[in-house]
């Protein structure tokens, strides 16, 4: 039993898979950015680990089988996968709500000139990474020039109606801490983001999600290089909040890897912690009902989702303990 399991057990909670409401599909690791906090270690060189047509079509079939209400597309930069638009349109045909986890700068890549219009036309929700409203902090985490391009992209999305009242085009932003500490309170930070972006660039958006950086893969290497890994792990464990457990995203979300393998969440995907019954479960060899009530696979990185106000792909999970 790992340390996280001990904390959950002491809270009197069992973490088991519920009905799948969100099908989160990681279409691959190809990305135009190389961010220090990226848990899937995405980047421009990751050309092999990307979803092919066979798997994309299997995902489309699995949408209806799963009973999911939302298709959540992530990567890498999911838009760089050649089957991204196919998945969006297939989801819309089936009546699913679509989320695109966008790094914003992808809107200016060659061949993506009409991406913003495509997303608006399909009424896809955009969840956009903007780890700070200060240029120096964004560029430090994501690369020089990223902040200015992100602002340009947000202005373009606003022009199409994203983030504006009455349009139904939802634009949410994501904050990640620059350093090894927990995010501040989500509500207060959202107010600061809205005020600063409106004053500086006339930008509006719907919600801000605060997400805790996971001490795994690339970010673990970064922390170890600074001799801060053990301290950060202890911060997460020490701030365990049992009130977050009932809202963890792994309970109602199924994560699908670029090769069709199934995981409880995108963080487990990054670590290769596959759902299995002898052999790994995939969209090719399993049914959604096979997953119902299965124990969630956990390890000590799960403290990242339960520390403080908690963290998920939809932001904070509760008030702080």
Fold and architecture overview:
It is a single chain. This protein has 321 residues and is of the alpha/beta class. It has a single domain (3-306), classed as TIM Barrel (Alpha-Beta Barrel), CATH 3.20.20. The protein contains 11 helices and 10 strands. It has helices spanning 3-10, 53-66, 84-93, 115-121, 135-142, 146-159, 186-201, 217-225, 229-238, 266-271, 303-306, and strands at residues 22-26, 70-74, 97-102, 125-129, 171-175, 207-210, 253-256, 262-263, 276-277, 279-280. The strands form 2 sheets. The chain has an 8-stranded mixed β-sheet. It has a two-stranded antiparallel ribbon with strand order 9-10. A hairpin with a 1-residue loop joins strand 9 (276-277) and strand 10. The two termini are 25 Å apart. The mean pLDDT is 94.
Number of strands: 10
Query: Number of DSSP helices?
Result: 11
Amount of beta strand: 5-15%
Low-confidence stretches: none
Major sheet strand order = 6-5-4-3-2-1-7-8
Shape: globular
Main sheet: strands, sense, barrel: 8 strands, mixed
Radius of gyration: 19 Å
How many structural domains in the coordinates?
1
Can I get a quick summary?
With 321 residues, the chain is an alpha/beta fold.
List keywords for this structure.
321 residues; alpha/beta; TIM Barrel; 8-stranded mixed β-sheet; two-stranded antiparallel sheet
